[in-house]
Every structure is written in C-alpha cells, then in structure tokens.
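User: Fold this, then the next.

Assistant: Folding the first:
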Amino acid sequence: MQAIQITDKSEQVAVLTPQANPWGVSPWGKTPPVAPCSLEDVMSEELAKELQSEEETGYVVGEPQVLLTDVSLTEDAMATDRESSDLLLAQMLQHEYDQEHDNMLKKEEAKFNGDSKVSISFSNYRTVHPALDGDDSSSDDEDWLDDGDKDDPRPKFSRAGYSGKGKNITTKHDPNICERRNAARMENFPPEFDTGDTGDSHGDKIRLPNHVYNKLKAHSMQEGKRSQRVHEKKEHSTAEHAVDPKTRLIMYKLINAQILDEVNGIISTGKESVVFHANGGRMPERTMPAECAIKVFKTTLNEFKNREKYIRGDFRYFKDEFKKQNPRRIIKIWAEKEMDNLKRMRRFGIRCPEAILLRKHVLVLSFIGQDHVPAPKLKEAHLSPDQFNDAYVQCVEAMKTLHKHCGLVHADLSEYNMLWHQGQVWFIDVSQSVDYTHSHAFEFLLRDCTNVYQFFSRQGVPGVKNQYELFNEITGLNLQGEGAEFLAQIQEYEKHEVYLTNDQARKDYAFEYFFDKTTKEKERKREEAKNKSSDSEENGQ
C-alpha cells in the first residue's frame, strides 16, 4: 500500500496509511518528533488536558489543525466496513433459518416415529451443528438442578452429560440424580392421575428409581386410554342403567307422542336389560294399561355374549345375518324375538306380559304388579307349602303348553324368570326362547327341567319329578339313562331323520347326519359301479 503524504508551508511531513486506525497514526509510519519539556510542564494539568484533547480529536502535535480522520477513512475502507456488516447480518439470518429448518425436521421425525420402538433419525439432514444449536435437549430435564440446596449441591452438567473430573466425575445417569429427576417429572402426569405428595417442586423429599417411574408412567398412559374408551362407550352404547342418548331420545318420543305419560324409576336390572316403570298414555288403535314396563335391552355384549347360538339356530331369524360386530343390530333382533315369543305365548293362554310396542331396542310391556310395586320373583316370594305346590303344577303345565302348542322352549327358565302374581305363575324374559325346531332346542329344554326340579325340590314340594322324567313327560319321548348318557341320546335324536323331516320347516339341519348320509351314498354308488364293471367283464369272456 502506498503512503499518503500531507505537506504544508513549513515542509513538515506526516506519513499516514489508508487503514482506519482509532489513534489516527499508522503503526508502520515514522514517529513524529516530540518537543522537549520540563518536569514542571509534564506535571501541569493544562498540558495533560491538551494532550488528551489531541488524542480524542486526531490532531498532530505541532501541526495546523488538520483532521487525520478526513484522510484516513478512504472509500475502500468504508466499503470494507459495509461488506463486513452485511456478511455478519447474512450469517445471522442464515443461522436462524437453519434453526427453523432443524426444528421442522425434529417435528417430522417425531411424527414419523410415533410410539414405534424402532425410530428413524433425520440428523444427517440438519444444517446446524449440535455444538452451535442453542436449544439444549437436556435443559428441561435439568431445570430442577438450578435451585439446589446449599447442603445438597447439585452439579452442572456439560453438553456431554457429565460434571467434575477424575474420581469426582458425575454423569447425568447417576442413580441419585435420576431418582430426584423422576420425582420432579411426576408433576407432568395428567391431572386425573393421583400421584400423591411428591415433595416440593424439585422432588427433594421423595426419590423414585427408574423402574418405579417407568411403571407409573405406563400405568398413567393406560389409565388415560381406558378413561377415553369408557367415555366413548358411554356415548355410543348403553351403560349400567341402559340409558344412553339414543335410548333417552326414544323415551322422549314416546312421551311426546302421548303413548306414555311419564317414566318413573327402575324396576329391575338384569344381565341383558333394564326395566323401568312408566304410566301409560293412549294409543289410537288400542287401549293402554294404566301401568307399563319399559324393557331397555343393553347394547353391550360384555355380560351376555352367547346370544349368537340362540339366534342362528332359529329359522325365524336365520334370514337376518348375524353380525357380532354390530351390537345394536343384534339387540334389535333380540327385542324382536322377545315381542314375537310373548305374542305367541299369549295366543295360547300362557300367562306372560303383553307386548305393546317396540322401538328399536326399547320394548313397552304391560306391568305385572300393582301400584308401582312389581310382582316378586318366585325366588323372592314368601309362599306357603300349598302355594309352592300350586306353583309347581302351573309351571309344568305352562312348559307343556309352551312346547306342544306354542312350539317354543324357554331356554332360560328358572326361579328368577318366573313371577308370582295374584296366585299364579307368570313367565318373563323370553327373548332367548327358541323354536322347537332349533338344533339345540331339546338340550335347552333339559336345562330348564333341571332348574325347575332343583328349585321345587329344595322347597320341599312333594311328588316333584326329576329332570329326566319331566323331560320325557313334556316331549312325549321315552329316553333312558341319566347324565351324559341321557344328553347323548338327545343329541342323537336331534340328528335323526324322522325328527328332521317331521313336517317341520327347518332351516338349520344337523351337519353330521347329512355328511354321514352323503358319504354312505357315495360308497354305495362306488360299489354299484364296481359290480357293473365285473359283470361286463364276465359277459365279455
């Protein structure tokens, strides 16, 4: 670089460079001569102030007042300053953009991996070096270390995750530190998860090992999912009292249509339904009773999962495809069965509730009782020996009528499904009752006979027939044996061709019988073909 010379009349020269020097003089230039002065002048305050002002204003000692800054800041120096400032600003903007790009990559990585045990990292696509990244991932976990106790100093970890040197080195995986950290993390559990008293805000009073914290965290997540499922189930299916929004809407419509005046309390709760008491209104085509019973079938299959075998084998509902994954469709068929069975039973004089109206899974029945008090079940009724004897006779006669005239089998007859009202036995809960052409109808009948025999024999009723004698009396058969032998005869009889073709419009045939019959037919035709071939060979000879 060439030097710039500044000259005046006294021929004194000052050598300067174009470099912007805060002192106004180039370090490589010649030092200007200094005028000698005495110690008294040096100690003078006026001289000190003069020298200070010269340094601040850029004057040269002994020269006319020429500003060195006017010649030192050339155009090249100013351009260099502007370029350096623009470069720094561009670097700062680029760094912020790279940080935003990396944050987006982190979010995409978390979204892509989800809860998978095998995760994929996008770290190779990041633009900011981890050492320059201002977001320390462990800062949130280490916040609890900031306000340490003086008696229990907490270490400050480096980015590598350790503190101290040599034998005093401590990592962030230290058991004591992890236990305190876990206690502090419990504050992040959902509010509905009761964690109890975990100490102060930094978890000093309680410590949790990693395996305990992991179990609590897993349990918290499971409880959150379970509560969400329970909430959805209450919204979409009937709960304990079987009144979900759809059921409530059906009841409101019945009241608005004046079919019912009001709905009162719950009469009984069973495994498949809930029964409410209601005051009857009016209908144009018939007279409503003063008291009604509303039977609401539960749409959950948790308590009564074996509905399928009662529906598939009944030819009356075989046309409707059984869909186990659609509870409301199953309950609709179940309610239809209840209504059809009750109408058939009343047609032949069997005492049972009268089916008035059906709306989806809500069935309106006549009320068996008086003044809002339901009739007691036979299990709960306090009867005399003579009344129990009459109840047994009525029960057997009703079972015979149900089988011979109605063509039905109750399939769940017991002291819990029989009511005692006005000195008579009433049958209820016939939704599972099947037609006598059902493939398992006789097996269900034997089970009903067993329940009836066991109950009345416990009550001391004289002359009670056992289940096998009662079964033969109802069906008119003469099967012998007991236990498994008797049941095997029933199953064999159900396969019998006479039973299958005895003027019964049966849709569900016994597979084993016809499979054996087809196999024997094929063997017979095969033997006939062999005989014909042997006869033709003999005639040819």
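Now the next one, as you asked:
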Amino acid sequence: MPQLTDALEKAAVDPRVKGIAVEINPLAIGWAKVQELRRYVKLFRDSGKFSIAYMKTAGEKEYYLASAFQEIVVAPTGNVRLAGFSVAGTFLRGVLDKVGVEPQVQRIGAYKSAGDQLLRRDMSDAQREQLGELLDDIYEHFLDTVAEARGKTREEVAGLLDRGVYDNEVLLAEGWLDSLKYEDEITDDLKKRTGGKEDEVAKVGLSRYSKVSRGAFGLNGKKRIAVLRAGGAIVGKASGVGSGSITPEAIIPKLRALAKDKKIAGVVLRVDSPGGDALASDLMWREIQQLAAKKPVVACMGDVAASGGYYMSMAAQAIVAQPLTITGSIGVVTGKFNLAELYERVGYAKTLLSRGKFAEFLAADNRSFNEEEASLFEESAQFAYRSFRDKAAASRKMPVSDMQAVAQGRVWTGQRALQRQLVDVLGGLHEAVALVKQAAGIDQDERVTLLEVSRSRTSPLKLLGGGANVLAGLAALGTLSQGGTPSAAFSQALGAAVLQQAAGSLLPGMLPNGLSAAAGLQLLQQVSAGQPLCYMTEVDATSLVSAGGVAAGAGAGAAAAWGGRSTAAGGLFDDEEAGVQAFFTQVEDAVGQLL
C-alpha cells in the first residue's frame, strides 16, 4: 500500500503524467485501508488529470474504492454484485463436546468474545450488539460516500443494495457505471488521451514509477520523520514461518535505534494488529513509551489495532484512526483444555505426580480445575485485565472508571472510538505526520522526508492453499514422531481448526485478521497453557465484507498514462517488472527460512 499511495502523490504533481488507469481486483484488505486509498485517489483527481477504475469482478468494497475515480469502467460481462454487508460468528462447542474436549476459558470483559468460539453454541447478545454496530457504521459510511461520489441520494444507494442488480446494462443506464468496455477498448481510448504512438499506449507501470524519487518533485524535506510499521499477530518469538507477526525481538531494537537517532524528528508507528501475546504487547508498550519521552510518537492505525494492537498504540502521544478502523477490545482471554473424556475414548492414560498445591494447576490436561484452581485461574485473569485497563486509562489520561465503561473487551470503529476518547484524530498517515510535525515544532507547510524503517514481506508459504490445516497436520505428526503426547499433538491440530473456524469467510490459507498459521498455533498453545492473551477474534477486518460473494485476491494493478516514452508490449495493466521482483523476493525469503 505505501507503494500505491506514494505513486499517487508523485503522479499528482508530475507534469509527465496525464492520468492513471487502475484495474481493481478483489481486495484482500479491510475498510480502513480502502478509506486511505480513496483519499490518495481524490488527491490525484484534484490535480485535474483523468483517472479510470477498471473492474471485471467487484463487490461493495471494490466499488467503494472505484467510486473515488473519475470514471468507473467494467467489462461488459463483468460480475458486479452490490447486495449489502454481513459478518458471521462460528462456534465449536458442539464439536468439542462430541470429541470429548472441555474448554476451560476465562475471558475478562462482557464483550470479550474471543473465547465464544470454544465456549458457546450460538452468538451472545453482547457480541451481536457490537458486531451490529460495526455493520451499521460500514453500511452508513458506504451509503454516504457512494452517494456523494456518484451524485446520488442515500436512498438511491440503499435501494441499489436492496434490489440485487446483476445486469451491468442497468447499472450503466442508472449512472452507477460510466462505461462497459473490454481492456482493448480502454487501450484504444488511452492511445488518444496520452498522445503516444498510434499503435501503443504511452504508459509506465507502478513498479517502475515507484523508483522515481519524491525529491524530484520537491516532496521531500531536510527533516526526517520515521515510519515504523507493525503488522500481524503479536507473539513472543518469531515463528520462523514468514513475517506475518509482530515480536518484541523485531520491534524493540528499531524503537531503541530511533530513540538514539538525532536525525529523526519524530516517529509514526503504523499499527495493524488484532493483538496476541499479552507479555509481548506490554514489553513493546514500555519501549514505545520510552521513545515517546524523547521525541514525538504518533500511532497511526490501519485496518485493525485492537486488544494487543491497541496496547501498543496507547503508548504513543496521540492516536490516529480511520473512521472504519477496528480498535478497542481492551480485555484478556486465557484458558486450557480438559482432555479427560477424549483420553478415555482413545484408550490413553496419564498419571501426574506433583509437589506443591498448584503444581498441577495448568499441567493437568486430564481433569478439570478443582475449586481452588478455578478460583486462582479467574483471579490471575482478572489481574491481567486490570493491568491492561489501568495502563490504558493512564495512557489516555482517563479515570479508571471511565476506561472501564469503554473497555470490557468491546470493539469499536474508529469513529466511535473518537467519541469515547480512545483515539484522538480521524485520518491516516497524512494526519499522523501533521501531528508529529506539530509536536516537533515543524511548520505544517514545511516538507519532510518520510523514512520507512521497516518493510513487511509475505512468506511464500502463505501462497499455499489450505496452509493452516496443512501446517497444523504436519505440526501434530511431528510432535508425535518426536515422542510428544497426544495432548500436545491435539493442541497443535485443534489450534488451526479453532482459529480457522472463528474467521468465517477467509482467504485461502489464512486465519482471522491475517493471522498466519504458525502464529495462530503459537497463540493457541499459549491459551491452552493458561497464558493471558490480548487478542481480538470478534471480527476479521478483511472478512467483514459484502454479501456479493466476491473472493478476495490480489489488490490493484495500475498504469500511469505517460506523456513521454511508452513501456514494453503486454496487457494494459501488466507490470512485468513487478512480477519478476515478487518472484525473486519469494525466493529470497524461502532461502532465508531454510538457512
């Protein structure tokens, strides 16, 4: 996404660029990121240059992004389904009962439904309430934004969703689309607009254009603001399976280096995480606080910054969130599995010898807690929750009683979080940079250089379909082959099943909120060992999507209409160089994992 927003910002002031043509494929991102992309598309449109969005398959999220463009073009036989929004809750208690597994889970907070998938057979009233509010905010925002962009009324947009229109000719006639064209027809149109050679479009691909320096257009300045990105589930240690997680060992050294770097005027902490390990969240919270004591730090939330993700963010001096960012979830969940009935069914026996009153507290997976153990378990979970809540109150300069009213594990959209003082400003990176400038005494009109100090990479293993189940199976077999107990192997296999079921509609090989299989198993093991987690599974930022049934996949392919030289032959939206770079990046990552 930084590559896209940076290119749009440069293209807006680049005299060589006459316009942009973007193919929007099904989006595998949440609403907050789409909101930020729309802002940069509008920034480009304000330059007076043309902008075209082209789609072959689209649902509400894709159409919402396309509505920011000057023209929406769809393939004549393209599949555009605008039908509304939904979110699902899935529950495994019945399954666990059938296989003889008793989940013993403590979730602190009336709305902390992260344990509901294990404990319940249906959706609780609290979860129904908070998910309903999320849907309301997305629905209302969609109506307002699309109505304004397409010159319609809210009632007309709502009517479109309720009619379930599937005929592109109807969408065109009613003004929801601007034209129906195949790619070759768009190409012919762009040949005329760009003034290139008669038989080709003068264009430049996103990958190549990304190499153009911002300094060439005076977009950089002498003073530097660092952008540190933290995305994925929070775990104690790196899993060794890609970079889909946040760990103290990766983040803390960067924070300390930024604190010492006198050339850095301030830091934007870009958080996109549903949380995870409570201890890891706390360790990073402390280091962010230490950095904020030396220079301005502003947290900028992405699609989701909830539970442990909020824990990290609240250490900053200010928090920026998009209206549809999913945040909050200030609560704790922990638990273990009682496998006694399962052991009996499969003929497995286990005897524990111990010394000390609570020695078997978490070690005994062949029985339930006794009364004293259950009391200790609840007290320890309450202690972890109070620690989180009280630090949140202190960080946000709120009375504990006020924080308690908005905590309890409840999830909020960014706009509702603003009303409850959980965030300070609605917006994205632009607003976060403005706050850093203000705190650092930099004039708002002065240009600054944004220095990316971290870059997330996608593991090649994530490209494999069914990754969660495959990895879980291999992990379970590996545990048994190395002399591990059936209990340990069961935890490995159940971990992926629980988390995958909890997600609802997911990307192939993905878990809730972009959680990697390895990170998911690690967090599940921690829960089953009684360790507290600050993790949100109430809703997946990428799966709270349309009822149109569009499968999420690649993002967007872009081509800037170029006033000068043209690129090599190929499809209008092809970016051959990007494909080659992606291939070598995957090879490099794979080799790095093997070494």
